[in-house]
Specification:
With about 775 residues, the chain is α/β, with parallel strands linked by helices. About 30% of the residues are buried. It contains 28 helices and 25 strands. The longest helix is centred in the first third of the chain and has 32 residues. Helix 19 packs across helix 20 and helix 23 crosses helix 26. It has a six-stranded mixed beta sheet. The protein has a five-stranded mixed barrel with strand order 1-3-4-5-6. A five-stranded parallel beta sheet has the order 8-9-12-7-13, sandwiched between helices.
């Protein structure tokens, strides 16, 4: 033993005193070669001193890693004497040294602390076994197996070192080599270094290896479990699973199952028809199986939301009090007796027939501003139902009515189902405005899609492309509105009950103004009826000279205009009260916009008074005919349409056929040119109803007999002299009344229409 120690002594001559190099975060073992980066000033000085003498330093590990300038007490006393093999100065002022551990030693006493530590050195000799017994061999073999196992479990040790470990026979060196390569904490490594008995040291390393293997096994088990779960495409999924597990542990709610539960509950609550419920449940099962963040899941979720929000079985109860309904309709609208009667009839039938009754499909046709849309609201109010309005003006896509298929991105149900959902009941009053203005292009024909909606026999199984299940529309009361019947396609027109709303008479407009328009505008402008009074004469003058329309929209604007002018004067503090009469109306509204036709002063030859229907109501026209020398040609002026021109030709032919009885000589026709003119020349006119007026004016011009100025006439004339019925008699009679005409000649077959003419109009005529 002594010989061995002596031999080693000779091999490495270690001086009694050496510079000390404090190292942190590592314990240097003998026979270990490693690079060290030295940055501290005192350490660099120690290395420089060492290099200039015997190239040896004492390497001591710091007890506290964070101590920047440790004192001797903060260093472990046992360390390793190292030989500086190479030194390299780095640009940042640090020094890199390559050190080889020579032998274990103890720093006995620090002889100097400035400019670097120097300590007295006492070499520590390891206690080596006299011979390698079976027990020692077994420990060594066990440690080698442990290191192999650790490497197989993922511990990284260089292959060269593994070869050295395999071939080492010295238990002390083996312990040191393993301890220096398995990445021990400073305290553990220091404890191993301080054991001088080689066999005990190896046993200690074996214990450490055992714990290390246990840690590695658990780590690998975790990794294996995780790897089993994971897959490239399922990385996201795996993270979610982990999150779920964490939430479960923390007792958080799982949102997904909550959502499914919520949908199940809603599906039962909305009481869907059996077929529909099956479809909803099928889609819910699909949603359950899907990944919650996939695009498809979003689509199914939106679909289910629609399914549970559509009112499958929720309806409002009709208030079947006929008197109350009558009162609501009368409060909201002046006159319109026919329409009100039709609504009350519907209510009466509802009252008598308790079971399911198909909703009628009414179509209000009439000029703008006569209250078609507001009528719909009143009907809903009188029935106690919800009201939904949808404008069809300019709709060109069939999907607007029937919805898009779910395969499209951003698909939605059609406007019918959307309206029903908005109403929240399955029996609202549904108004389809402007049905005469539906377009049509390559996207389909919406009017054809409406055929199913507006047929009480078919619409109980209306299938929207988005929902793909039938919805019963038969309880909905559909009301459509339009200005003209002609542009509504035939099959669609056939499905509706058309109710014509004619324009209002001046007296009706006066009633509407007094009851509705004036009170509404006064309130909107913050004026009371004590401040502003408008006489009936002023209202009638506004109607006749400031507006020309069938409805009352412009009349309401003029009343609003009047209120604004008054409001301005009150704000300026000019006067407190105003009375608007016919005399001072122009001070508020300016000069009149429309002047009535001038009355003829006397009966004239070739001028007959006719009656015309315009969208703004009735009007009177004067048909003028004059003769000139010529070759029997006929000239027509005054922007006449084709029908009216043909009507003039027919009138002339009829007069020629009756020339003898009228006392007209035949040769006159060959020598006379005839010119017919209908003022005003800039306004286009068409229609056959001025036929009789033209015939009268031609006969008057050719016979030289004047026509009575206070007789107006209307009717389509045929070549045989028959007079055919015409339309718009009410409006034409009103126009005659306005002009003070006492006698109106109408076709006999229009006798039935006399009932529509108000009593006060018929009184003097």
């Amino acid at each position: 033993m002594a010989n061995l120690a002596e031999k080693e002594e000779k091999e490495v001559e270690i001086p009694d005193s050496l510079p000390v190099l404090p190292v942190r975060d590592i314990v240097v073992f003998p026979y270990m070669i490693l690079p060290l980066f030295v940055g501290r000033d005192m350490s660099i000085k120690a290395i420089e001193h060492s290099l200039s003498t015997n190239k040896m330093v004492m390497l001591l590990t710091q007890k506290d890693l964070n101590a920047e300038n440790p004192v001797p007490d903060e260093l472990y006393s046992i360390g390793t004497v190292g030989l500086i093999m190479r030194m390299l100065k780095l640009p940042d002022g640090r020094v890199k040294v390559l050190v080889q551990g020579l032998a274990k030693a103890r720093a006995v006493k620090f002889s100097q602390e400035e400019p670097f530590f120097t300590a007295g050195i006492e070499k520590i000799l390891d206690k080596k076994p006299e011979e390698i017994t079976i027990e020692i061999e077994a420990i060594m073999r066990s440690v080698r197996e442990q290191i192999d196992k650790a490497v197989s479990l993922g511990k990284t040790i260089l292959p060269d070192i593994m070869i050295v470990i395999e071939n080492l026979d010295d238990p002390g060196k083996l312990a040191d080599l393993i301890a220096s390569n398995i990445g021990l904490k400073t305290e553990q490594a220091q404890a191993v270094l301080e054991i001088t008995d080689n066999v005990r040291r190896l046993k200690k390393v074996s214990e450490i290896m055992n714990r290390e293997i246990e840690l590695l096994t658990v780590q690998q088990k975790i990794q294996t479990e995780v790897r089993g779960e994971i897959d490239k495409n399922q990385r996201e999924y795996f993270l979610r699973e982990q999150l779920k597990a964490i939430q479960k542990e923390l007792g958080d709610i799982d949102e997904r199952s909550e959502e499914i539960k919520e949908f199940k509950k809603k599906i039962l609550e909305v009481k869907m028809p059996e077929k529909v419920q099956k479809e909803a449940e099928k889609q819910l099962k699909r949603l359950e199986k899907m990944h919650p963040d996939s695009a498809e899941a979003g689509t199914v979720r939106t679909y289910l939301e629609w399914m549970v929000e559509v009112p499958w079985s929720k309806s409002t109860k009709d208030s079947l009090d006929i008197k109350a309904a009558q009162k609501v309709l009368d409060d909201d609208h002046y006159d319109l007796e026919k329409v009100k009667e039709r609504i009350l009839e519907y209510l009466s039938v509802r009252k008598l027939k308790k079971e399911k009754m198909k909703g009628p499909i009414l179509c209000f046709i009439g000029p703008p501003g006569v209250g078609k849309t507001s009528l719909g609201k009143s009907i809903a109010r009188s029935l106690g139902r919800e009201f939904v309005r949808m404008s069809l003006g300019g709709v060109r896509d069939e999907a607007e009515i029937r919805g898009h298929r779910r395969t499209y991105v951003g698909a939605l149900p059609g406007r019918i189902i959307q309206g029903i959902k908005t109403a929240g009941t399955n029996n609202p009053v549904f108004m389809l405005d402007e049905i005469d203005k539906i377009g049509m292009d390559f996207r389909g024909d919406p009017s054809s899609a409406l055929l199913e909606v507006l047929d009480p026999e078919q619409n109980n199984t209306f299938v929207d492309h988005y929902l793909t299940v039938p919805f019963d529309l038969s309880r909905v009361m559909f009301i459509t509105t339009g200005n003209l019947v002609d542009t509504i396609p035939g099959p669609l027109r056939d499905r509706m009950e058309i109710i014509h709303l004619s324009g209002y008479t001046a007296e009706e407009k006066l009633g509407i103004s007094k009851n509705y328009l004036i009170p509404k505008q006064l309130e909107e402008h913050g004026i009371t009826n004590k401040i502003l009074k408008i006489t009936d004469a002023a209202v009638l003058m506004t109607i006749s000279q400031y507006t020309r329309e069938a409805g009352v929209r412009n009349l309401e604007r003029e009343i609003a205009n009047l209120c604004r002018k008054v409001a301005k004067k009150i704000a300026e503090g000019k006067q407190k009260t105003f009375v608007v009469k016919a005399k001072n109306l122009h001070r508020f509204l300016g000069v009149p916009k429309h002047l009535p036709e001038e009355e003829m002063e006397k009966d004239e030859v070739g001028v007959a008074t006719g009656l015309a229907w315009t969208e703004a109501g009735g009007d009177i026209i004067y048909v003028e005919a004059t003769t000139m020398k010529g070759k029997g040609s006929l000239t027509l002026t005054g922007q006449l349409g084709d029908v009216m021109k043909e009507s003039a030709q027919a009138a002339l032919s009829y007069v020629r056929s009756k020339a003898a009885s009228l006392g007209i000589k035949d040769e006159i026709f060959a020598k006379t040119d005839l010119h017919i003119h209908v003022p005003a020349g800039a306004i286009p006119k068409d229609g056959p109803s001025a036929g009789i007026t033209m015939a009268t004016s031609i006969a008057s011009a050719l016979t030289g007999k004047p026509v009575k100025k206070d007789v107006a006439m209307t009717g389509e004339v045929t070549l045989r002299g028959r007079v055919l019925p015409i339309g718009g008699l009410k409006e034409k009679a009103l126009a005659a009344k306005r002009m003070g005409i006492k006698v109106v000649i109408v076709p006999k077959r229009n006798k039935k229409d006399l009932e529509d003419i108000p009593k006060y109009v018929k009184k003097d005529m």
